[in-house]
Amino acid sequence: MINEWFHPAGSLAHEGFDSVVDAAIDGWAHTGFRSVTLGDANPTSIDLPAAAVERVFVPLAGESFTVDYTLSDGTTGGQSLTGRASVFHGPADCLYLPTGAHASVSSAAGRIAIAEAPTTEARPVQFLPAAEVPVELRGSGISSRQVHNFATPAGLDCVKIIACEVITPGGNWSSYPPHKHDEAIPGSESRLEEIYYFETAVSRGSNAPEAADPFSLFSTYSSGAGEITTSATVRSGDIALVPYGYHGPLAAAPGYDNYYLNVMAGPDAERVWLISDDPAHGWVRDEWEDLEFDSRLPYTGDSAGSAANSETSKEK
Questions:
Q1: How much is the pLDDT for 2?
Q2: Which residue of 58, 81, 194, 221 has the fewest CB atoms within a 10 Å radius of its CB?
Q3: Do 301 and 85 touch, CB atoms closer than 8 A?
Q4: Is the omega angle on the peptide bond into residue 249 within 30 degrees of 0, that is, cis?
Q5: By the 8 A CB rule, do 252 and 175 touch?
Q6: CA–CA separation, 41 vs 236, rounded Å?
Q7: Cα(287)–Cα(109) distance, rounded to whole angstroms?
């Protein structure tokens, strides 16, 4: 049975990009995502034409990237971005470009992601170095995970985009308890589409054989806003779309770490992430208070350790 909201790696490849999520997908309107591999056997640069979307650039893997741009008023500029060995090696530099900008991304060898959201309102160009990306250690016990809030309201000042990275160590659960954000309830819940871009890897310190096949499990299910069912085994490059409904959990299989990049945006005037837990499962948050946080986190550039800009939260 075909699931219109789950897309295996490669199925959304388009015009040189490894994956493209935009309004060309039926029923999708408020968010966008692109990933591209540059260098080696691929071209070393790729263009993003001017469009009525704001964009955030975040390296996934690779030492360095350059983003050259022309703004809607004709102003030109360029920004170097320092990358990382992989998405499991701490935050990377990020760049925000306002609506109407043309951009060209280049790298000798690397992969980069671009979060997008339609808007006609402009913000200034913004550069956020890796060392200043807010790092949150969320949950507790086997629900411990690490969040890079590079394009949440705590990070870049976007018009619509809310984006973050989440690292879930092998054996842990994330996007849990299941929650939704598909109704406008002032002060309680906001309407946000959500994109999940996944990567998986053998857990740090594990002595896995060559045949190891990292994977995680991810699910969504229906709410009053619409019917949706995803029950998927996810691997690197897979994408899950959540137009509405409850989503979670993400379960990282023992021995395999999981990474996902979330991009959210919606029709509400305020840029805010407000969620409602599934009433059947929200009680588990109370259990976290008596549990120790996973000592494997935070993951930094070299090994697990203390990130200078990290904070711990058991509330979300």
A1: 67
A2: 221
A3: yes
A4: yes
A5: no
A6: 19
A7: 44
Distance CA 316, CA 314 (A): 6
Query: CB neighbours of 292 closer than 8 A, spacing ≥ 6?
Result: 140, 141
* 8-state DSSP, 299: B
Q: What secondary structure letter does DSSP report for 293?
A: P
DSSP 8-state symbol, 247? E
Question: What's the predicted TM-score (pTM) here?
Answer: 0.96
Distance from C-alpha of 98 to C-alpha of 157, rounded to nearest angstrom: 10
* Residue 19 in tokens: 């994956």
The predicted pLDDT at position 203 comes to 97
Cα–Cα–Cα angle for 64, 66, 28, nearest 5°?
105
Listed in sequence order, the DSSP H helices in 254-303 are 284-287
Cα separation of 108 and 42, whole Å? 10
d(CA 236, CA 113): 13
Q: What is the DSSP letter of 132?
A: G
Cα distances (Å, whole numbers) of residue 253 to 20, 53, 68, 145, 178: 27, 36, 39, 14, 18
pLDDT tens for 21-40 read 999 999 999 999 999 999 99
The pair of three-digit structure tokens given for residue 84, joined into one six-digit string: 């990382």
Residue 193: its pLDDT value, please?
98
Asked if the model's pLDDT at residue 315 lies above 80, the reply is no
Tell me the pLDDT band of 301, cut-offs 50, 70 and 90. confident
